[in-house]
Amino acid sequence: MSSDFARVASLSEIPDGSLLGVVTPAGERVCLVNRGGEVSALSDVCTHQAFPISAGQLLDDGTVECVWHGARFDCRSGAVRQGPATDDLPSYEVRVVGDEIHVAARGGAGAER
Prior knowledge:
Strand content: 35-45%
Helix content: under 10%
CATH class: Mainly Beta
Strand order of the largest sheet: 2-3-4-9
Structural class: mainly beta
Number of domains: 1
Radius of gyration: 13 Å
């Protein structure tokens, strides 16, 4: 496992269709998304007004909705799908090794998609 990746959670902590807020060893707030068994990771800070994305919900179409003002983002890329947010959420590269979820540090190799 590359040193650019850090273990942040186990698969058992994030059931299908759910979000989980975690903090990397570097102190970055990350929202893990499990959609159909595929885990992705986005910044856990809404680009509209810094509310935790992990407090929101994952919609059936793969959109993550911020519970505060309803901004919506693609669960894989972090692209804005609905305002009031205008800036995309940063995304992180994810590796699942056995039951462990590892996330790349931002700025490291492969950190952003």
